[in-house]
Amino acid sequence: AMQKALQPVLVSAELWGRHFYGGDKLPTKICIVNDQTDGQNLNNVTLVWTLTDGEGKAFATGKQQIQEVPYYDRVWINPDISIPAALSAPRIDGKLVLTLQAGNKLVSKNEYDLVFATRKWAEVG
């Protein structure tokens, strides 16, 4: 985790909880921090979010273009991440994976362990 915190460009998620239901939106804000040593603004930035299952297989993904992340600044994004209502299992121990590209270059990656479940599973459990 320390290695991730030392990335010159950091993408991180502010999450409310770690357990989420299929069919809901994932309540999160995403922060991009640009502390590159060269003092450059980040341009042509694409944030890609992916929800994966326990095997790392993606079951939902999306992307968002970001105008620019000025040097030594941060940009907050409220992404529209929907968890599919039809999950491959009643409970999935999965991840939210965030990658940030500037042009064609991967500049940052981060991931969070999350649990996705059907409401039915939660009622029975």
- Percentage of helical residues? under 10%
Q: Which strand order spans the largest sheet, edge to edge or round the barrel?
A: 2-8-7-4-5
Main β-sheet description: 5 strands, mixed
Task: Determine the structural class based on helices, strands and strand pairing.
Answer: mainly beta
Query: What number is the mean pLDDT?
Result: 92
Structure in a nutshell:
The chain has 125 residues and is mainly beta.
Outline the secondary-structure elements.
Layout: H1 2-5, E1 9-15, E2 19-21, E3 28-34, E4 42-52, E5 58-69, E6 73-77, E7 91-102, E8 105-117, H2 119-124
Parallel strand pairs: 2-8
Antiparallel strand pairs: 1-3, 3-6, 4-5, 4-7, 7-8
Write up this protein.
This protein is mainly beta and 125 residues long. 8% of the residues lie in helices and 56% in strands. It has 2 helices and 8 strands, in the order αββββββββα. It has a 5-stranded mixed β-sheet. A 3-stranded antiparallel β-sheet has the order 1-3-6, with no helix packed on it. The radius of gyration is 16 Å and the shape is elongated. The N and C termini lie far apart (32 Å).
